[in-house]
């Protein structure tokens, strides 16, 4: 089992990020879907009385999605995975500002694969020591990794200038570009604390797959949050009612694209919220 906590600073308020993240998930899902692959939304509904973390809300939004990822996993996984086994279920409880997402492969790997993503969003500079209330034993296992959306390396094949925080300036919010040690002077400023726990019980592949999964998660967090910032003029000023309408429209679009569109080459994105 590998436990890592990713800390991602963003020049926005916690309230703004709630809208920004949901909007960006909807947009990014469209870039992942087509040719029988991508995202299928099975449920998107309100829930009540389900405590997730002490001190956080017990009601929120529940989503259940299926990711069809035949072309997006490493070759060594495809080589041993039967056809149709690369379908992963994502169940997410969004009790914002806390969110929990659980990934599984119930039809093939069952209890041998486990990935939990817990996110807490706080208006600070990423310096809170234990927001997820981990036990001393878990803290000893946890590795903290900071993700800088402006300065961290992006692979050439995934770089797009329109998603570069060093080049983007928001006309609506008058923020950006993010240059140098931007987080030292940014106002507002918040941090996404993302705790990722991965366990893969498959003899001979456990360490390799767990390491690959964490590398993929870090790349996802970096690329996705670069988009969140650079899409600011698209989501800035939207309400949660606007977001629910966009999500409904996105579900219809995804169902159509998954059945009739071409396979997309964009990197995968996970909901989390």
From TrEMBL:
Ranges of biased composition (kind: Polar residues): 262-273
One GO CC term on file: cytoplasm
One GO MF term: phosphatidylcholine transporter activity
Disordered: annotated segments: 254-273
Domain Phosphatidylinositol transfer protein N-terminal: 1-251
UniProt name for this protein: Phosphatidylinositol transfer protein alpha isoform
